[in-house]
Specification:
The complex is a heterodimer. Chain A is mainly alpha-helical. Chain A is built from 5 helices and no strands. A two-stranded antiparallel sheet of chain B has the order 1-4. Classes of the chains: A mainly alpha, B mainly alpha. Chain B: InterPro entries: ATP_synth_F0_asu, ATP_synth_F0_asu_AS, ATP_synth_F0_asu_bact/mt, F0_ATP_A_sf.
Chain lengths: 218, 250
């Protein structure tokens, strides 16, 4: 093949190399396929005589002689790769993701169902608690009222018996008082009769004296 | 050790095959295409073989890449674009694996070959064109006629749209190719400085520290670029597919 056809392609990449010290390269190309090229020539700014090792001076990616082989093998490998992807890998990963998606949705459903159950249990519990509390209140109220009624009855009974005693006592007092008052009249009449007899020695009728006592007592 | 930074892109024949005078040899490029496809499908196959409801770490890596591409495609091309999911997913995984494998020392980078990236880009654009005409017939050409453009400007705008459509396979392929190529060359050049300066004695070894730090930093950057370019390729594929599914909607 033509060794000099496209040397210019490689020049830009040789300039950087040319800056490196020459002596380090003296041995390097000799051990390589470059061997035929004098070392000094490698590092000139013009960059001539480079890349001969495979008989083509073309910058390797632009070497058209390799194109048919690259195209064929790319078609084979990428074609098989595409088939593997579209037949095996893509459906497989797709199904994995779908399964997981379904599973997550299912688990979320289950979780919300369980949550609803828990909520129900809580509301039942709270309802029962409220019922129990109301019942307790009723019992407490009943007990309180019963006690109150009992206490009232007791009090009434006591009051009644006390009132009875008070009334009896008052009756007796009134009786004693009446008797005493009645006695007061008789005593006064006797006293008055005695006083009159002593003072005037005359006899007075009982009727006069009682009338006089009564007048005086007024 | 070859100091030529383009040496790593050379295609070497491993098993020479010639059919009808055309060279179809199994080369190192072919080997790493096979490797990329095998590593990517092997990883995806083995990590998902448990089919765990609760994924293992590696299984979740596979699932994440699946969901990453799925959401990208759904956002880019709508839910009717999901029929292209295997295609976008294959492209992304193949390019990503090829890019990452290329980061290994002595490994060949499949995506640093313009013909490979161009073939992948043509595959995308070809799908877009074929599906566009299959689905919408000549209505697909509405793609080139944006809404709300004044009549006087229309020929100009249509011309620009056609040119931009035609440049898509080129920009799509060159972006990936150039990023991988430039990154690997830069790495090689800086790593070459380290080796060269290291032979210069004490001062040289001191001076070699700078390119060494640079090489380490660039390696990190290149891993980022390897992912980013696969991502960009997939995103643009989604956008172009969107044109095929909904022409004239942009």
């Amino acid at each position: 093949m033509s060794a000099t056809a496209a040397k210019a392609e490689s020049i830009p990449f040789k300039i950087a190399q040319a800056e490196t010290p020459t002596e380090t390269h003296d041995a390097a190309p000799a051990g390589d396929a470059h061997g035929a090229v004098p070392a000094g020539e490698l590092h000139t700014e013009t960059g001539v005589a480079h890349g001969e090792e495979h008989g083509s001076g073309v910058f390797p990616p632009f070497d058209a002689s390799t194109f048919p082989s690259q195209l064929l093998w790319l078609a084979i490998t990428f074609g098989i790769f595409y088939l593997v992807m579209s037949r095996i890998i893509v459906p497989r990963i797709g199904s994995i993701l779908e399964t997981r998606h379904d599973r997550i949705a299912q688990d979320l459903d289950e979780a919300s169902r369980l949550k609803a159950e828990a909520d129900n249990a809580i509301s039942t519990y709270e309802k029962e608690l409220a019922d129990a509390r109301a019942k307790g209140n009723v019992i407490a109220t009943e007990a309180r009222e019963a006690a109150k009624a009992k206490a009232d009855a007791e009090r009434l009974k006591n009051e009644e018996s006390l009132n009875g005693k008070i009334a009896a006592a008052e009756t007796r007092i009134a009786g004693i008082k009446d008797k005493a008052l009645a006695d007061v009249g008789a005593i006064a009449e006797e006293t008055a009769a005695a006083v009159v007899e002593q003072l005037i020695g005359g006899k007075t009728t009982k009727a006069e004296i009682s009338a006089a006592v009564k007048a005086a007592a007024k | 050790m070859a100091n030529d930074p383009t040496h790593q892109f050379l295609v070497n024949k491993i098993v020479p095959i010639e059919i009808g005078g055309i060279d179809f040899s199994f080369t190192n490029a072919s080997l790493f295409m096979v490797a990329s496809a095998a590593v990517a499908s092997g990883f995806l196959y083995l990590t998902t073989s448990q089919r765990g409801i609760i994924p293992s770490r590696l299984q979740s890596v596979s699932e994440m890449s699946y969901e990453f591409i799925a959401s990208m495609l759904r956002e880019g091309a709508g839910s009717s674009g999901m029929k292209f999911f295997p295609m976008v997913f294959s492209l992304f995984m193949f390019i990503l694996t090829a890019n990452l494998l290329g980061m290994m020392p002595y490994f060949f980078t499949v995506t640093s070959q313009i013909i490979v990236t161009f073939a992948l880009a043509l595959f995308v654009i070809g799908t877009v064109v074929l599906y566009g005409f299959y689905k919408h017939g000549f209505g697909f050409l509405k793609l080139f006629v944006p809404h709300g453009v004044p009549g006087a400007l229309l020929p100009l705008v249509v011309a620009i749209e056609i040119i931009s459509f035609l440049s898509r396979p080129i920009s799509l392929s060159v972006r990936l190719f150039a990023n991988m190529l430039a990154g690997h060359i830069t790495l090689k050049v800086f790593a070459g400085f380290v080796a060269s300066l290291g032979t210069l004695g004490a001062l040289g070894i001191g001076g070699a520290i700078l390119p060494l730090i640079m090489t380490v930093a660039l390696t990190g950057l290149e891993f980022l670029v390897a992912f980013l370019q696969a991502y960009v390729f997939a995103v643009l594929t989604c956008m172009y597919l969107n044109d095929a599914i909904h022409p004239g909607s942009h």
